[in-house]
Amino acid sequence: MQNKAPQAITLSNTTLIKYTLFSVIFAAIILTAVILPAEYNIDPTGVGHKLGLTVFNKVKSETDLVPTSQKGTEKLKNSSEVIEVIVPAGRGVEYKFIMEQYQKLTYEWITDGAPLYFDLHGEPKGDKSGYFESYTIATLTEVKGSFTAPFAGSHGWYWKNITDAPVTVQLIVKGEYLTHGLK
């Protein structure tokens, strides 16, 4: 057996031009028949629809719509509310917001004159043990702040009035929550 040395392939200029033209035409066909229908739902030949490639663009369009509608919902939840709560003489009341984990609430409350003992706290959703977590405890006539719910559940204030007359609290809130009310 004799080993032959591999022959070197040399292409003429004419052959190189033919391969280059073939590559450009092949790329144009793939772009028109596959990429445009799948990515942009542009199907001038109808081949993309027959191959089922236009489905990819419809799925992409539907998923693009979801965040837009969620943004609209969040915008509605971020409206500001003014709530008036009356704390009877010698008693306490709880006013809570039902929130999902990591929802945010900014607040400001002010009494009609007398200071109130308060405990801003949260209770985990579905917990029956009586556990709660306090965020702020003080006795004041007004407070301004914000918090992010560390867990899903009810979050809000317990106000206690130790005076002989009812105290009105004006509560201004803005943020994300599902519902609110006296507990």
Characterization of this structure:
The protein is an alpha+beta fold and 183 residues long. The protein contains three helices and nine strands; from the N terminus they run H-H-H-E-E-E-E-E-E-E-E-E. It has helices spanning 13-40, 47-50, 54-77; strands spanning 80-87, 92-99, 104-111, 116-124, 133-140, 142-148, 153-160, 167-175, 179-182. The strands form two sheets. It has a five-stranded antiparallel sheet with strand order 5-4-7-2-9, with no helix packed on it. A hairpin with an 8-residue loop joins strand 4 and strand 5. The longest helix is centred in the N-terminal third of the chain and has 28 residues, at 13-40. Mean pLDDT is 84; it is low at 60-76.
Walk me through the topology:
Blueprint (H helix, E strand, L loop, with lengths): L12 H28 L6 H4 L3 H24 L2 E8 L4 E8 L4 E8 L4 E9 L8 E8 L1 E7 L4 E8 L6 E9 L3 E4 L1
Antiparallel strand pairs: 1-8, 2-7, 2-9, 3-6, 3-8, 4-5, 4-7
Helix pairs in contact: 1-3
Search tags:
3 helices; 38% strand; 5-stranded antiparallel beta sheet; 183 residues; 4-stranded antiparallel beta sheet; single chain; alpha+beta; rod-shaped
